[in-house]
Amino acid sequence: MKTYKIITYGCQMNKSDSERIAGVLETTGYKKAIDRQIPDILVFNACSVRQSAIDRIYGQANLIRKLKTKNYKLKTIITGCVLPKDRQKFKKIFDLVFNIKDLKRLPVFLRYLERGKQIIVENSLKNENISYFKIRPRQENRFSARIPISFGCGRFCSYCAVPYTRGLEINRPAKDILKEAKAFVTAGAKEIWLLGQTVSSWKDPQNKNYEFTDLLQAVEKIPGEFWVRFESSYVLDFDDKLINFLAKAKKVSNYVNLPLQSATNRVLKAMNRRYTLEQYLKVLEKMKERIPDFSFSTDIIVGFPGETEKQFRNTYNIFKRIKPTMAYIAKYSPRPGTMAEKLFKDRISPSQKQSRFTKLDKLLKQTAKENMAREVGKTLKVLVEEWLSTKKECLGKTRNFKAIRFPSAENLVGRFVRVTIVKAREFEIEGVMAN
Ligand code: SF4
Known about the structure:
By secondary structure, the chain is an alpha/beta fold. 34% of the residues lie in helices and 23% in strands.
């Protein structure tokens, strides 16, 4: 039987794409390659958010050539978030370059590949025609399910590649999302991820009055013991209705990823983020006040064109005040074709960006540890994700998405257990199983 391997870069949404790519390949007759086996199909599911992720894929060119000498039948594919300019460069390395929107057409592309043709798909399907949502995913594991509820984004933050790689946002109907969620829960899922580039902006395309909060409420009502998580959010979507729901939710997680990007309004404006620092802080304060055991992460870009040392200091000070449990800190890199790349010169040197990154990263270690320390002495419900057989330890997450480890001779993966927290580290808490 022919085999495949998928290498995934990027966010939860890309991981969700990979589960759908695997689903298509398996219905076409391919089987997942075992560990060191050289597959017949090697798929790179790319992320264009940072130049470094794209560079890493270019860096695989020699490896790909070597693998092809070992398995002459090997076909290489790149998809995911790939900007048009990068797509051109990838022509030199890959047999098939296609837009993830066109995933349903993959079996047709594979037939061409088998005849020895190279395919570069330039004109992909229009967003309204995508059949992506209808594809049955092959879950990475049975206990955690990813459900894309929207695709693409039309907010056009000036630095971001997504509107160009995925197109404008389209939302999936609530009835399809709920049907998929129910099926996953019935099949044993203990965690449901609702995913979208701006997941919190979702609205039912068949009823615009039915919003993200209504969807969360409906998912929460599905019978069974499971948690609901969502990513990525946009601060302006967090109105009182959503925050008040999160405050009393039982299954929906009390963790939110709330990207800030910069704490200076001028920089936020240049980024085309549509909120001010004051609006962001107001929403965050409400969430901290109302949602029990609330925990949050944020995203920050350092070295955005024109960001002065003083403006960076401002971000640093606000970061220190809001104390995120986790932060995804990026050094700005221009993505070809985006507004920021067209309008602004990237004049901040790599060493300045690195220095800002290092300062913020150091601060994150403090804020993260303070957040972790708050859990010591509590007994928390934990979903076990991994069992380290040699160390006899389980790794998992709390409802508010804190990473935890505890000793266990038994493999408890996919189960909820109660753990008493005894120690806090920077990005992890440690505990012992409660009786
Ligand atoms: S909200 Fe902005 S950063 Fe997020 S996906 Fe949309 S354009 Fe990109």
